[in-house]
Amino acid sequence: MLQALSRIGRRRVLQACTAVAVVLGLLLWWLLPLGQPAPTGTLTFSTGVPSGVYQRYGERLKGDLARDLPRVSIELQTSEGSQQNIARVATGRADFTIATTDALATYLRSGKPGADRLRGCVRLYDDYIQLVVPRASKVRKVSDLRGKRVGVGQRGSGVRLVADRLLTAAGLDPAKDVTPVSSGIDTMPKQLEHDRLDAFFWSGGLPTSAVQELSDRFAIRLVPLEAALVRELQAAGGSARYYRSAMMPADAYHNANQDQAVPTVAVANVLVTTERSDPAMTEAFTRTVIDSRDRIGREVHAAQLVDLRTAIYTDPLPLHEGASRYYRSVKP
């Protein structure tokens, strides 16, 4: 009798242990990506000019990536902007980058090296085109820039692309009717402040710290880019279809336009990689971008505008397999 009870007791203990093992196994299966080793290696992220939004965003994202991908070494590369960023990723000199949709569409249409390999991961925030002049300037519209010294961004930047198009839409020859100055946002504010420029174009998230800091120490004004000009810009077709009319909020730069909203042009940014990127790495990178939005957004305001509901729309690029895997995993 006692032996029978003992056998029954041992059987129950064994059954209980088995049940616990099954539960733990299921829990581990749920929590850990079994069969998908954690990404390893080196990841190169091409950003932008110092003090620009791409660079500031990249610096903060690097910390979150290091936490989420502890076996991956992350290297940031500064750049002139979107056009150089795209070329780097397309030709294998960088793994991930940020670029504007107009620059991406232009690269694709040109059939440059690696264009067919480009893939999107996340639609990020919008860039706003900012035409900055001294407050006392007589420039009230783009056509008033005739004969002026104008900062148009570096050759590899998205700023250069849209500045040339805006000047053309306003009836000006970018090479002849203005004196174009090839500079980035890291140098143009000081050039304007010290009368070495009459105006400069910038394309970036709001607020851009370099413009904000300039407005705090020097009287500036943002020139309106009216809807009629945007329609003329869009009439060129092709990659110009990615431009849209927008308003810079009144509080974007408190000291620039006496808290008045300013009509302008907006264009979306996309996180870019290539089809060759490891799907597990790309899935993890995409997850970190979405999960870090609020934390980074406290320091880089544009990051607050990353939205899971629209992140999947990476036109003109097809979505990368790893990014698609992430969006399926969080689908309600």
Number of helices: 11
Percent of residues in β-strands:
15-25%
Tell me roughly what share of residues is in helical segments.
Answer: 25-40%
Order of helices and strands: HEHEHEHEEHEHEHEHEEHHH
Gap from first CA to last CA? 56 Å
Report the sheet with the most strands, covering strand number, pairing sense and barrel closure.
Answer: 10 strands, mixed
Shape: globular
The whole-number mean of residue pLDDT values reads: 90
Helix/strand structural class: alpha/beta
Low-confidence runs: 20-34
Strand tally: 10
State Rg: 25 Å
Can you characterise this structure?
By secondary structure, the protein is α/β, with parallel strands linked by helices. 38% of the residues lie in helices and 20% in strands. It is built from 11 helices and 10 strands. The chain has helices spanning 2-31, 53-68, 82-90, 101-110, 158-169, 188-193, 209-217, 227-234, 279-291, 293-297, 321-329, and strands at 41-46, 72-77, 96-100, 118-134, 149-151, 179-181, 199-204, 220-222, 244-248, 262-274. Strands 1, 2, 3, 4, 5, 6, 7, 8, 9 and 10 form a 10-stranded mixed beta sheet that branches. Strand 1, helix 2 (53-68) and strand 2 form a beta-alpha-beta unit. Helix 2 (53-68) crosses helix 9 (279-291), helix 5 (158-169) packs across helix 8 and helix 9 (279-291) crosses helix 11. The longest helix has 30 residues, at 2-31. The N and C termini lie far apart (56 Å). Residues 20-34 have low confidence and may be disordered.
